[in-house]
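Appendix B, Record 12. Input sequence as logged:
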Amino acid sequence: MRKAELRRETNETSIEVALDLDGEGRPDISTGVGFFDHMLTHLAKHGLFDITVHAKGDLHIDAHHTVEDVGIALGKVFLQAIGDAKGLTRFGHAVVPMDEVLAEATVDFSGRPYLVYNAEMPQATVGDFDAELAEEFFRAFAVNARITLHINLRCARNTHHAIEGLYKAVARALRQAVALDPRVKGVPSTKGMLET
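Logged structural output:
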């Protein structure tokens, strides 16, 4: 069973997350940041992951710590749920259109964390959500899931659509990468292991 759960407590946030990689796309999301909840719901739905995120953070300051720490926690449960990576497809790629937006994500469960983020947003905020927090989330997620993640926003005019397109593209790329391939024997690497 490719499942994991985690509780993370700091002076800034209290977070509980759970993940089923082979789920049905069921979200149970509550972070206190409405737009972020909306994005995490897309991650679950389009990745076909069952994701639970219950977070309480220092929102009286801003949403930064909550968004980043959820990224950390989600990355850790993805890494745990992957386990020994035997039979893993490993790579995933998706290009997602959303009206005027075209968003691209490419992922490698390499064990070597790296984020390339090329996404210039049309506006600095969506409501009271800082658009720059999308990059903070994906960086925290990639580092803690120990994946290589490339994100490219090819075109956009609407910031809500832009960020949503990115989350959908990442979800689809992750869904492809974490799939088990019956033709893959052992770990999908010529080294015989993924870097850890």
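The beta strands are 3-9, 13-20, 27-30, 50-57, 91-98, 101-108, 114-118, 125-126, 129-130, 148-155.
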